[in-house]
Design brief:
heterodimer, A: alpha+beta, two-stranded antiparallel ribbon, elongated, B: seven-stranded mixed beta sheet, five-stranded mixed beta sheet
C-alpha cells in the first residue's frame, strides 16, 4: 500500500545498569499499517531495527496492566494506543516516572505494587475465620457485589501513580491505586477491619491525607475508576476517626 | 555460584502456581514462586467469561450437579480425557469457587425476581426464586447442559487472580518476578529444582528444592494467530521435555477459539454467545442453526470453529483486507446488558476496531475469526500431578496434561482447572515435599549451571546468517497454515520437515548485541529452539494420529477412531541432538470408564469408528445403575461403584446445594 503514512517513534533509551549508557532519544522511522498500535509498532522496531530495545507487554489487550508508558507527555497503556490517533505521526515515548527504571521503557511496577499491597494489606482480613467450603456460600446483595467489582477492576498498571504529583514528592505515597484498594475492602462485608484499622494503615501524609486532589489519576485511569470520589469518601470517613 | 534452597519451588505465578503456593505454604513448607512477569500480569488475568462449577443456584442451572458437569466435560473432550481426573475436578470445583468467595472474589450474585434474557435470539423472561437471592450466579457457555459458568462480569480471571495473588502476599509466600527457569536440575530420574535466569540482570542462578512444580501455562505463541499473551511460549513444558525423561501428553490437541477479534486476535469471551450473541455471515444470515440445529452457537469450541471455517469455505465469509471473517452480533442483548456484563468486550471492540457492539444492526457487528486459544497438551502427569517419569516434578494448569480436557476443553473449564488443580495437585505436591529429603551434590548443581552458561555463551558467539526473529515468524506462520484447524497428512508431513529445518537454522544465527543483560534478541535466541521442539511434538503427533478427535481434525481421516486411537500421545526428547521427538502411546481403558465412548450430541453424526467394548461397557454401566437405583442407592453411591476416585484434604466430601433441602 503506497498511501501508508510515515511515522516517527522517538524513544528515550537508557540502561541504568550500563555505566557507558546515557539517556538519549532515539528516533525510529516506519510505515503505519492499518489499525497499528504501539504494541505492533514497538514489536516491529525490535524485530527489524533495534533488537536491544526494552519494553514490557503481556496481554496486549489492555487487561494485564504491563505496558504503561508516557506518550507525548501522557501516561497511557501502550497496547491500547492507536497510532492513527496522532495526526502528525510523531510519538515520543518515555518510561513512567515514580517507578524504578529497568531499561528504556521498562519499569518495575511489580515491585512497587507488591510493596503497596503489603502496606495497605490488600486482602480480606477475616480474623482467621475458616469457611467450610463444602457448605453453601455466604449470601451477598447483588448490588453490593457489583459495587465491589467496580473497584476491583483496577489492574495496577501504575498510570495513576505516574500521573500523580504527590507520588513524585513523596516516594512512599500509596497512590490512588492503594487508596482504591482500601476503598474496595472498606465496603466488603467479608473484611472485618474497622475504620480505625484502616486509619492505622493510611491515616497519614503517605496515605489518604497526602492526596492534593489534582485529579490526574482519574483523568488517566485506563479503567475509568471513580478514584477521586472514592478518595474523597475515604478521607471524609477517616478524618472522623479518633 | 548463586544457589537458593527451598522446600517447594513453583515455576509460574498465574492462578495455578499461586494456588499451589498457598497449599505448600499452609503445610509449613518454605515456598518460592518464580514468574516471568509480576504475577498479577499473568495470562490468567485474561480469562474473561468465567469458571465452571455446578453450584446450581440460579434458575437456569437448577438440577445441576457433579454428574452433569462430568458428562459435559467428557463429551467435550471427545472421550480423550482421563475420566477419574475429570471426576476429581468436577467434585472440587464448587469448593474452589466457595474458597475464592472467602478470599474476596466479588462473584456476580443471583437477583430475585424477573429479568429479560436472550435465548436462541429470542427475548425470554427468567424468574429467580427468593431463596436463591444473593447466592453465586452463573451464565451459559458452550457444550454445557446447564448454566454453570460463574463470573464477575467479563473480568473473571482478573478478579480471581488478584484475590489469589493477594492471598499469597498475605500468607507471605516468597514471590520472585522477572525470573525465567531455563532448565531443570535432575539426576537419576529425580528433579531437584531449576537453573534460573534473572531477566533484569541476565545472571544465572540455581534454585534447588525438594519438589518442583511447573505451572507456566500454554504454548499458544507457537502460532501466529493466537489469543494468548506474548509470554505464553510454553517454556515450562519445553524445559521438562529437554530433560529427555519427562513426557508431554497429547501435544497435538490444540484448541481454536471461535471469536477472537480480527485482526488483533484479542479474545472476545464465549460469554458473548453464552449470553445470547449470534454469528452472522456475509449476508447477515445466522448460519449456525443450519449446521448445529440443537446447540447452534453453543456447541463446543472445536465444532463451532470448524463450522465457521466451513461456512467461509462455502463462500459465505465477509471479505476484508485481513482475509475473510464472520460477524459476531451481541447488539441483540441490548446496551444495558453489554455495558454491565460484557464491558471489556465493548471496550476492546471500541478501542481496537472503532466498533460499538451495542449499536443495533450491521454497524455494531464485530469481525471475528477462529484462532489458536488453548493447549490441551502439556507435561503428562499422574493423577497426583507428578510427572509419570521424572520424580519430584509436578505440573498443573494449562502447562500440564493431567488430563481433564482430552482433545477439547470446554469454555469455563480452564480457569476452573487452574484453581482446582492448584488445590488438588498443590496438596499432593506439598506431601511430596514433606516426605522427601534433598540429597544432591553441589557438583551436580554446578554442572547444570555451567552447562547453561555455556549455552548462552555459545549463542552469543554464533556468527551465522540467520535471524532468530525471522525463524520464529516462519514457525508461527507455518503452524497456522499446516497444523491448524483443518489438518491432513501431506501438510503435516511438510510441517514436520520444515520445522526440523528451522531447528537446524537456529544453530546458524547471529545475535547483534553481545550483552547478557537486557538483550531481548538473546532471549528469543534461547527460547525459539525450545518452541520449535514443542512445535515438532505437535506436528509429529498430529501427523501420526490418523483420526479426528475433538480439536484434532484430519480431512483425510474424518472419523473418530475408537478402535485404534483411544489413546494418549506421549512425546519425549530422547537425545539432545535429536531433531524429532520420540512418540509412544498410553491406552485409555474403556472397561474402567464411567462413561464409555458415544456420540457427543453435537458435531457431524455417524462419524465414529466404534469400539465394540463401548457398547459392552455401556450395558454394564446401565445394568449396575438400574440395580442400584432399585436398591434405593443415591447418585454418589452409584458413581462410587462405577468408578472410584480419591481426593486430598476434605475435597472428597459432598458439596451442599440449596436445592438439596427441598
Amino acid at each position: 500500500m503506497s498511501d501508508q503514512r510515515d511515522i516517527t517513534i522517538s524513544v528515550l533509551k537508557y540502561n541504568p545498569r550500563d555505566s557507558d549508557s546515557n539517556p538519549e532519544f532515539v528516533d525510529y522511522h516506519l510505515k503505519e499499517t492499518p489499525g497499528m498500535t504501539l504494541f505492533i509498532a514497538l514489536s516491529q522496531i525490535r524485530q527489524e531495527m533495534d533488537p536491544d530495545l526494552a519494553f514490557d507487554f503481556v496481554c496486549r489487550a489492555g487487561i494485564c496492566g504491563s505496558c504503561g508508558m508516557v506518550v507525548n507527555g501522557k501516561p497511557i497503556l501502550a497496547c491500547r494506543t492507536l497510532i492513527a490517533n496522532y495526526p502528525d505521526g510523531i510519538l515520543q515515548l518515555m518510561p513512567m516516572p515514580a517507578f524504578e527504571l529497568i531499561k528504556d521503557l521498562s519499569v518495575n511496577t511489580g515491585k512497587w505494587m507488591d510493596a503497596m499491597s503489603t502496606r495497605v494489606e490488600s486482602w480480606i482480613v477475616d480474623n482467621g475465620t475458616e469457611i467450610d467450603i463444602t457448605k453453601i456460600e455466604e449470601r451477598m446483595e447483588p448490588k453490593l457485589a457489583e459495587e465491589i467489582f467496580e473497584l476491583d477492576r483496577c489492574i495496577e498498571c501504575g498510570i495513576c501513580v505516574a500521573s500523580c504529583a504527590t507520588a513524585l514528592m513523596r516516594p512512599d505515597f500509596v497512590g490512588a491505586v492503594g487508596l482504591n484498594r482500601v476503598a474496595r475492602f472498606q465496603i466488603d462485608p467479608r473484611d472485618k477491619r474497622s475504620d480505625e484499622d484502616f486509619y492505622e494503615l493510611i491515616g497519614d501524609d503517605d496515605g489518604i491525607f497526602g492526596c492534593m486532589s489534582l485529579l490526574a489519576c482519574e483523568d488517566h485511569c485506563p479503567k475509568n475508576l471513580p478514584l477521586q470520589s472514592k478518595i474523597a469518601y475515604l478521607r471524609r470517613k477517616l478524618v472522623s476517626v479518633k | 555460584m548463586k544457589i537458593t534452597y527451598c522446600d517447594a519451588l513453583i515455576i509460574g505465578g498465574g492462578l495455578a502456581g499461586l494456588r499451589v503456593s498457598l497449599a505448600t505454604q499452609k503445610k509449613g513448607l518454605n515456598t518460592i514462586v518464580l514468574s516471568l512477569v509480576p504475577v498479577k500480569r499473568s495470562h490468567s488475568a485474561a480469562a474473561q467469561g468465567g469458571m465452571q462449577a455446578s453450584l446450581a443456584n440460579s434458575k437456569m442451572s437448577e438440577g445441576d450437579n457433579e454428574d452433569l458437569h462430568f458428562s459435559d466435560t467428557v463429551k467435550g473432550s471427545d472421550w480423550g480425557c482421563d475420566q477419574e481426573v475429570a471426576r476429581m475436578f468436577v467434585h472440587t470445583a464448587p469448593k474452589a469457587i466457595r474458597e475464592l468467595a472467602g478470599w474476596g472474589v466479588p462473584w456476580t450474585r443471583v437477583q430475585e425476581g424477573s429479568r429479560e434474557a436472550v435465548i436462541n435470539a429470542k427475548k425470554t423472561t427468567i424468574t429467580e426464586d427468593k431463596d436463591r437471592h444473593g447466592l453465586i450466579m452463573s451464565r451459559d457457555f458452550g457444550g454445557t447442559k446447564k448454566w454453570r459458568t460463574c463470573y464477575t462480569a467479563d473480568a473473571t480471571g482478573h478478579t480471581m487472580l488478584f484475590s489469589v495473588a493477594n492471598e499469597a502476599l498475605k500468607k507471605e509466600v516468597a514471590i520472585r518476578d522477572r525470573k525465567e527457569a531455563i532448565s531443570l536440575i535432575h539426576e537419576n530420574d529425580t528433579c531437584y529444582g531449576a537453573v534460573v535466569r534473572d531477566l533484569i540482570t541476565g545472571e544465572l542462578e540455581a534454585y534447588v528444592s525438594k519438589g518442583t512444580c511447573i505451572s507456566t501455562g500454554g504454548y499458544g505463541r507457537i502460532y501466529k494467530q493466537t489469543t494468548n499473551a506474548v509470554i505464553c511460549e510454553g517454556m515450562g513444558a519445553a524445559i521438562a521435555l529437554e530433560t529427555g525423561i519427562a513426557t508431554l501428553g497429547n501435544m497435538e490437541a490444540v484448541q481454536f477459539h471461535p471469536t477472537p477479534i480480527v485482526p488483533s486476535g484479542i479474545l472476545l469471551t464465549e460469554g458473548c454467545r453464552g449470553d445470547g450473541g449470534i454469528l452472522r455471515d456475509v449476508d447477515g444470515h445466522r448460519f449456525m442453526p443450519d449446521y448445529e440445529p440443537e446447540k447452534k452457537e453453543l456447541a463446543s469450541r472445536d465444532v463451532v470453529s470448524r463450522r465457521m471455517i466451513e461456512h467461509i469455505r462455502n463462500g459465505k465469509g465477509v471479505p476484508s483486507p485481513y482475509g475473510d471473517h464472520i460477524w459476531l452480533d451481541i447488539s441483540i442483548l441490548g446496551r444495558e446488558h453489554i455495558e454491565k456484563n460484557l464491558r471489556d468486550v465493548q471496550e476492546i471492540s471500541q478501542i481496537f476496531n472503532g466498533i460499538d457492539p451495542a449499536i443495533e444492526g450491521p454497524e455494531g457487528w464485530v469481525p471475528v475469526l477462529p484462532m489458536q486459544h488453548y493447549s490441551m497438551g502439556g507435561i503428562r502427569t499422574k493423577k497426583t500431578g507428578e510427572s509419570q517419569k521424572l520424580n519430584g516434578l509436578f505440573s498443573c494448569g494449562e502447562a500440564a496434561c493431567w488430563d481433564m480436557h482430552g482433545f477439547n476443553r470446554l469454555g469455563g473449564n480452564s480457569v476452573s482447572e487452574t484453581v482446582v488443580a492448584g488445590m488438588i495437585v498443590g496438596n499432593y505436591f506439598a506431601d511430596y515435599c514433606l516426605e522427601n529429603e534433598l540429597e544432591i551434590k553441589t557438583s551436580l548443581i554446578q554442572k547444570h549451571l555451567s552447562d547453561e552458561e555455556a549455552k548462552i555463551d555459545k549463542i552469543l558467539s554464533l556468527d551465522g546468517e540467520e535471524d532468530i526473529f525471522k525463524i520464529k515468524d516462519t514457525m508461527q506462520r507455518l503452524m497456522d497454515k499446516k497444523v491448524g484447524i483443518f489438518r491432513d497428512g501431506v501438510h503435516l508431513k511438510e510441517a514436520v520437515s520444515e520445522l526440523q529445518e528451522l531447528l537446524a537454522k537456529t544453530k546458524n544465527i547471529r545475535v547483534k548485541s553481545k550483552v547478557k543483560a537486557g538483550n531481548p534478541e538473546l532471549e528469543e535466541a534461547y527460547r525459539v529452539p525450545k518452541m520449535l521442539k514443542l512445535a515438532l511434538c505437535i506436528a509429529a503427533g498430529a501427523e501420526q494420529r490418523t483420526e479426528s478427535r475433538g480439536a484434532h481434525f484430519r480431512e483425510d481421516f474424518l472419523k473418530r477412531d475408537d478402535v485404534n486411537w483411544l489413546k494418549r500421545t506421549l512425546t519425549h526428547w530422547a537425545n539432545e541432538d535429536d531433531t524429532l521427538p520420540t512418540i509412544t502411546y498410553e491406552d485409555l481403558d474403556i472397561n474402567k470408564m464411567e462413561m464409555p465412548p458415544a456420540f457427543r450430541g453435537y458435531g457431524a453424526k455417524g462419524m465414529i469408528i466404534e469400539n465394540e467394548l463401548s457398547i459392552k461397557r455401556q450395558e454394564e454401566v446401565d445394568e449396575l445403575r438400574e440395580r442400584m437405583e432399585d436398591e434405593g442407592k443415591d447418585r454418589h453411591e452409584i458413581q462410587d461403584a462405577l468408578m472410584k476416585f480419591d481426593l486430598p484434604m476434605n475435597y472428597r466430601e459432598n458439596n451442599e446445594r440449596i436445592g438439596d433441602k427441598s
